[in-house]
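pasting Stage VI sporulation protein F for the record, 82 residues
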Amino acid sequence: MNRGFFNSIEQKTGVSMDEIFALANEIQHADFKNEKQVRKIVRRVSKMSKRQITQELEDKLVQSIIQDGSSLDLDKITKMMK
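structre below
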């Protein structure tokens, strides 16, 4: 792996490489039909990005992800969090 690339990401985002890999692993093994798992991921992303989201927005994100159920559209989530 390119350590410089991850150092750059860590500096720009304040998120460690370990946190990024842990989140990626969680997403890779998540059941996107399971509301509890999806809600946990949404909260974790919110915390990592240092963005507070309302309960209403969290509910919308979770329902949107559960409806698809087979994948996580990060672009869609990012747009909803803005």
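The first helix runs from residue 3 to 13.
DSSP finds five helices and no strands in the chain.
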